[in-house]
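FW: tagging you since you asked about this chain on Friday. Here's the raw sequence from the shared folder, copied in full. Didn't touch anything.
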Amino acid sequence: MTQTLALLHAAYRELNARKLFWVTMALSLLIVAVFAALGINENGITILWWEFDLEFVNTRFFPREVFYKVLFTTFGIGFWLTWLASILALISTSSIVPDMVSGGSIDILLSKPIGRTRLFLTRYFTGLIFVTVQVSVFTVASFLLIGIRGGAWEPWFLIAIPLVVVFFSYLYGVCALVGLLTRSTIVSLLVTMLFWLFIFGVHSGEEITQSGSIAYELDLKQVQADLAEAVEYGDPIEVTEPLQEVVDSVQASYDTWAMTHAWFYGAKCILPKTSETIGVLDRTLRKNAGLEVGLPEETEGRRRGPRSGNMFGTTSRVPQREIDRIQSERKDSRSLTWIIGTSLLFEAVLLGICCWLFSRRDF
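HL: got it, structure written out here
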């Protein structure tokens, strides 16, 4: 245990000496300061001593505490922690494994009385400690801001710390494996970014094909009901035959969309689920931190406008809003075991390969 703590301390001192650690920390605190400079009143929003009148963004529609909660979830989590801060963290930590296995460094480390597996995992978790510190500072500062400025003390916001770290660990596992194989910081970083882009592409494809399959599923039910009604009332063949052709056409389209969605869903079952992990955080905050607040009905109707059709051009023009509602329900029904459990299993496989390679390689 003493050797492990010594290695963690040495690795942390190495990261701490890098300017990017403090740059990321400063940026996190700067974003919290920007949030603190924003305010909301009955007329609109304020930035320090300036006031901007807005029709739908004021305390008549959004209570003060909801305003700051939305800032934290939309920009703090959705933009900063899961994108920019994660990219900076990958840049900062991508060199940990390549530097460890480079000539000179590995000789010193292997001379210590510690097993290779524990040595590798210690260095790996050093990178996660770096991210945990960054996320904790930003989340705790935001928690205090929401409590002081918004008057709402929501401990549920602190769940962002473990979930964002878990989200980052999926990518860092890939970075560690590539760094071990290539001993190159640049290659490990580029491959990880490409892998992240690939995951995002699979996620987007699964969402689009799921939405399309839902649209044609609803459309198929409607045209089948129309055909059944025509048969029941004894409509002539001039009416029932065209309806049957429509049913067959919609059925073929639905089968194509459903099959394509099944392929994307199968790929997601294997890959780590970065977007869904953040989605768990979003659902948790919506459910437990009082974020399920909408606009008044008449205002929402004016803002969104009529949505009688959908982007898939189905025969019966199923409303896009209904498609979105069903898709949201199906996504929310996915279990934590499927989202986080399978993602951690993917990461565990990568770490197992890393430990096996590191233990067997002759440096």
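FW: The two ends are 25 Å apart (CA to CA).
HL: agreed, and The mean pLDDT is 84.
FW: great, closing this out.
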